[in-house]
Description:
Blueprint: E1 3-5, E2 12-14, E3 18-19, H1 32-44, E4 49-51, H2 60-69, E5 77-82, E6 84-86, E7 92-95, H3 99-113, E8 118-123, H4 132-144, E9 148-154, H5 158-165, E10 172-176, H6 188-195, E11 198-202, H7 234-254, H8 258-267, H9 282-289, H10 298-305
Parallel strand pairs: 3-4, 4-5, 5-8, 8-9, 9-10, 10-11
Antiparallel strand pairs: 1-2, 6-7
Helix pairs in contact: 1-2, 1-9, 3-4, 5-6, 7-8
Amino acid sequence: MQTVQLGSEGLTVSRQGLGCMGMSEFYGQGDDSESIATIHRALELGVNFLDTADMYGPFTNERLVGKAIADRRDGVVIATKFGNARGENGERLGVRGDPEYVRQACEASLERLGVDHVDLYYQHRVDPKTPIEDTVGAMAELVEQGKVRYLGLSEASPQTVRRAAAVHPISALQTEYSLWAREPEEEVLPTVRELGIGFVPYSPLGRGFLTGTIRSLDQLADDDFRRSQPRFQGENFAHNIAIVEAIDGLAAEKDATAAQIALAWVHAQGEDIVPIPGTKRRAYLEQNVGALDVELTEDEIESLESAGSAVGDRYADMSPIDA
């Protein structure tokens, strides 16, 4: 497994990471035993960059990741997040970035993960009520205390990223990016590259849509959050299938899976981009890692991109996104 520098501050991670969110929430019923086996298999394959957050579960995903890595901490780069406040029963309590909350959230994450430091600590969403300088200032204190090694932001606008980087170096920006979510190309990617910040795409498989396995909402569990997302609805769904068909066609030509083609496209955008496809099953993990062996020509990349952009908002409620 190739390793790359994420940002310019010294953080080294595997060329591809593993998103752990779906192991605990949002994508139907999980299986902790299989999830832990999936994390262990990822580490065996050299995938050392694990992504979680306090709000996943809520609060259970960090415990799951902590359990999985308890006897192999030295070989893992742990990324977790704070900011999307939730209650014990899952209720959503808004976005918080005030310094006191930053400190509280970090202590709670360290306890759940069972570690003495987090390698990469993200603000999950930007708090419109708290100046980013105050939030990042509190995060910087965590670095000084040795509780956090590197700082990141998630779904932050270029303007916010610049203000944050003026307070403390930012190693990574995480946002959605894939063949059907190419919005970051206009302003976000140029900004982070100018500032020496690594880019971490989440949902690089379009929440599973780009794998070609979802042809109807009936295939999704009743509690699967994708049922309520605009890009999976009605005419949007039918339109977006065209992107999947382009991926399927190229996959057949190259003797690869659609997921591998979609991930290979993300990797082709630059070595400063480290996607974190999520899965809770070893079989899909191994398939995703196989994408690193798929090389796309310029003509193939152009063919994929000519399939068009997805229609429909990325989320049913885009209000938490920093614009």
